[in-house]
Amino acid sequence: MLEIVRQQMICIVAPGWPGGGEIPTPVSGALNDLFKDVAVVHFASIGLLPAMADAAEQRPSLMLELAVEEGLSPYDLLYRLIYHSGGAMWSLFGGMYFPNVEEPTDQQKQQLLGRLMECHSIADGAFVGARDRSVRQIQMEAELLKQTRNEARTLKPKYGNDRTAFALALARWAYTNPRFEWAAKPAPRSYWRGKGAGIGAKLAYPVSALVLWFVVLWLGGALPRAYNWFFGEPHPVVLAIEDAVSKTSKCLLAMSGHFLLAVSVIAFLVWLFLVPLPAQFVSWRRWLKSIQRELERPTETISSLSTYVAGWVIGVPLLLAIAACAIAYTLAPLAYALVPEYMEQTIEPKIPKLTGLELTEIAVVAIIVVLCIGALFSRLNRRFTTLSERFFHPLEDDVPRAQQIHPSIERCEAREVDRIQHMISLTDLCGPQGWSAWCIRASLRIVTFAGRVFFTQGWLGDAPGIHFGHWHIIDNGRRFLFCSNYDGNFGGYLDDFINGASSGTTLAWRWTELNPRVPAVAGQPGIAQPRSFPPTRFLIYRGVKCELKFKSYARDSMLPNLYRFVACNATIDEINLATGLRDALFGERNEKNDDLIMRAIET
Amino acid sequence: MKLSMYEPDALSPGARNFSYGAFCWLNRHIIVLRAVGAVLRRWPSLGGSMVARASAVKGVLTRTRSFSNTAHEANMVSGTYLIGMDPGPTYDSDRDLVHQRLAALNVPVDSDDEAKRRINTVSQPGAGAFDLIDDYLMWVVFHAMRPLYGTATGAVVAGSAAPAAAAQGNVNQGLQRQYLLEIRYVAGQLLAGSLATLGVRRRAETCGDALQARIGRLTGLIGTAWGVTSSTADIERNAVGLAWISHPVTVQSGALAVQELLERPKVYEQLRSQAKSLGASVWTDANFRNVVRDHVLELMRFRPIFPLLARDVPRDTEVETGARHNAKCPGGGKVSLLSIAALFDSTAVPDSGKFCPHRNWGNEHALRYLMFGYGYRQCPARDYAVEILTSALIGLLTLPGLQLARGEGKAIVYDGPLMSCMRMRIP
């Protein structure tokens, strides 16, 4: 399921670029024609990646980024691009592998395809904002929006403020316009945006898997007994096998039950601590918020340091203890099956015998104690303001240097004003690189899964405006490449991540650093001094919240693009608006659709 | 020009893979479909609106107004064509054009020539193994059908009218192969149908777009070659349709026929010994050709390329399935035809379970060609396809003891329900 998303964003990183820092105009023109003609590429860009210091090939790598429609395999896509009659891909890459060959033979094209397949990398993590839309659909819906607005201007004097009649007139106009015949069919939606949008459908998968697991285990134990009942007792050897199967099934069933119960209890406790208690008790709410605030606090203060230390001293051991209890409870049936006497005679006497009522009382007392501690600290905080200020005061200045933007990056951003913005970021993985690569991949898979299943309306967490964002681990797991096509400007874009998806961003980037590197070619940014990602706490806290440090880090990691292709220059909001207008114009006439039409033409 | 508009998968994850996998498995294990067909022939009411008896299948295929070919339309990724149209002026004019183009074919001379040439290549000393589809059938069928585009064939294959070589038809083999793969995937979608996974569908759509773009650049040239004054849209529709429907379906039918033949060693040996005894006259002996043609048709009966068909139901109607009551077919729905079951209906086909190339079909002679459709909507290229496959099979019979190349990976590689590779070994 995730591969279909990851395949939508491909980077071809071909080492040994012999040219300079410009893509010749005829090649750019040919690439534009190619991408327009194949009509499956949403965005494309070209950048130069500096060679690694210890690489045999010291010339830069040419990076072609492609963000394409869903469902295309990289091979099919590259095949189509390379064999296109325009020969644009040959103009770009041919010279790197087959110098001085103007007109390639078919065999050479096939060899080029093989080389590019070796160099290609599908995204390790990816997010698509404007989901379920083809390039043509976006273009056609944008045209529908434009034409509808034009028509609305014509009809405005006639209908004035009569919104219902106005919407009806526009719907009639759209219906009778043969150019928009295609729009009569509702805009397609994938399962997770359509039937599977509800939480019930999302829960159905794990619940079904769980039920299936229990049924299989139960059948494993029940079938031999049913067989014996039906046909009589079999041969002793078969009987012994049946007995073993039944016992294993019974043990697994009990372990699964225990595991499910343990997970349910933990889930209940998490819910209790995070939802009802903060809702009921102000002191609890303040306490939770202050913990989060202190963990994310970008500046070093006594308060944040003490929270961090308390997290290690109290939080981590507590979580480990809970996990150990859950594991012990899950494995208990296995232990009883393997060493029943030891369990009954040695372990059981050591387990305190508490009734359910007693357990509940202990839990309630624990909660009250924590509430009282929270309230006490809250009161102390308000009572001794001088002490409090000192406690929360920053210990050091956070920003060692201001952001410095390389002129080539500024030129790129200036070129993209009023268009969909773009960024390329290249960082190195911290050592041990294998571990860092594994952690990043695991984090990115979670982000991709969440984006695919939960964040289906164009927002990644609370971060809007991302068209195609993708992360690649390249150069045998040594470097981390991030490309993004987004709305707005770079500062605002990073703010969205800092405020909207800080945990995921911190988790993905915390394993990176910036090592010194020379510019790919003259006129492009290099890195003189090594840099680290802002410090993080408990994997997901702080990091990007150190805003200036993070922005400075991100700026320093950026590389300019030499070429850019945008199939349709529309923001996510405009794309969503156009799709909504299509469904409203050709849907049933009701207040909701009328309102959507009017909002679309008034926006 | 049809705009291929990708649609995301609305089915829950896993459901599509499962249903498509089951469909492909059934296509590959045709015996299971035959078994299902036997059950539905015996108890037609079990199938609902799925018809299996020969009489019922013929009935549906001849009631073209009640059971429409538009069921194919959704899977024709490169635009509409005869097979997906309802009868009407466009259908009639397109059909006339197809007949006119088919008349230009020089079959079996061209197919024989290419088969001889390819057999010479694959039987070179040391050749050992070859791919039946990529090294043989693809080219035999392609060369037999080259005259479809007349003087524009080279340009169509090259995808450009610019080079003089392309205009003369002297296109390198790599470009020819690319073109043939492109049309294979477009045709594959017709067979894979609406069950196809997104990846399969996307590949077909991409190839469909490429094919349309290829033809779109050459409509003038093709129109001149055909000597017609139709509109650009008409020429494009027919040129695109002819490209994808003629070649891949014939190639796949040939591969299925050979697969069936190799599973019948006695039949194969008998044919091969006849071919051997004829020596050099194997290509010219009319009686032997008739025998091989009968075998081709019988092999196709056992492995038809479309064992399961669908038809749209434009308005409420009923169909005689053979059950006590007619099956209701509500308008807007579909009926399914188990044509493989009709081909084995013992009430219409004598000794239906036996492999009998020289069967006397009696009044049911038309049923013999059911794999090409039935009645007015039958494939116009039926006889040409049979002749091309006959040439291909004669060529294969001249080889000594053909076998599937087992032991070096799978001899037959499937791409969905279609065979993409069939490795053969010559001892």
Provide a quick synopsis of the model.
The complex is a heterodimer of chains A (603) and B (427). Chain A is of the alpha+beta class.
In words, what does this structure look like?
The complex is a heterodimer of chains A (603) and B (427). Chain A folds into three domains: 2-122 and 401-566; 135-186 and 572-602, no CATH class; 198-295 and 300-392, no CATH class. Helix content of chain A is 58%, strand content 12%. Chain A has helices at residues 2-6, 25-38, 74-82, 88-97, 106-119, 135-159, 163-176, 199-231, 236-274, 276-280, 282-296, 302-338, 340-347, 356-383, 385-392, 407-415, 433-453, 490-500, 502-509, 547-557, 572-586, 591-602, and strands spanning 9-15, 41-49, 61-68, 120-122, 125-128, 421-429, 466-474, 479-486, 512-514, 531-532, 536-537, 541-542, 558-559, 561-566. In chain A, a hairpin with a 3-residue loop joins strand 11 (536-537) and strand 12 (541-542). Chain B has 427 residues and is of the alpha+beta class. Chain B is built from 16 helices and nine strands. Chain B has helices at residues 15-28, 30-42, 54-62, 89-103, 109-122, 132-145, 153-158, 164-167, 173-192, 198-216, 219-226, 232-262, 265-278, 286-302, 339-342, 382-397; strands at residues 50-51, 129-131, 308-312, 317-319, 327-329, 334-338, 403-404, 412-415, 418-425. In chain B, strand 8 and strand 9 (418-425) form a beta hairpin. In chain B, helix 6 (132-145) packs across helix 16 (382-397). The relative contact order of chain B is 0.18. The interface between A and B is medium-sized, with 37 and 30 residues.
